[in-house]
Design goal:
With about 130 residues, the protein is α+β, with helices and mostly antiparallel strands. It has a single domain, classed as Trna Endonuclease, Chain: A, domain 1 (3-Layer(aba) Sandwich). It is built from 3 helices and 5 strands, in the order αβββααββ. A 5-stranded mixed sheet has the order 1-2-3-4-5. A hairpin with a 2-residue loop joins strand 1 and strand 2. The longest helix has 26 residues. It starts with 6 loop residues before the first helix and ends in a 7-residue tail after the last strand.
């Protein structure tokens, strides 16, 4: 008897699980450096922000990209997605009445072995 679950649904669940595992690995990486998790998978008007952290005085919005290698993961983030993440970050700050707060947008790359590479302030000028 054929599997009742469509292949697409199984692939979606597999991708979701892989994304969550990558995010957990990245979170552990930040926590080992002293950062505190504020939100995970927070949704704003622009879309989802994978992790929102407090790192010292900075509010850090982290986009996690997982692929077989770091180069492939890095290529998965384009300007349109960066704009959506920034819009959602503004929503987050507005929803919490944070006013002006030092913030940055990091990208965390995760390869197939779970190795994490951080790109701090990946959206900014440094």
């Amino acid at each position: 008897m054929p599997d009742a679950q469509p292949l697409r649904a199984r692939r979606g669940r597999t991708a979701d699980l892989a994304g969550r595992l990558a995010e957990e690995g990245v979170l552990r990486h930040y926590q080992a450096r002293g950062a505190t998790l504020l939100e995970a998978r927070w949704r704003g008007r622009g879309g989802e922000i994978d992790l929102i952290l407090r790192d010292g005085a900075d509010l850090v919005f982290v986009e996690v990209k997982a692929a077989r290698d770091h180069d492939t993961a890095a290529q998965a983030l384009g300007p349109a997605q960066m704009r959506r993440i920034m819009l959602s970050a503004l929503d987050y700050c507005e929803a919490r009445a944070l006013g002006e707060v030092p913030m940055r947008f990091d990208v965390a790359l995760v390869d197939a072995t779970g190795r994490v590479a951080l790109m701090p302030d990946a959206f900014g000028a440094g």
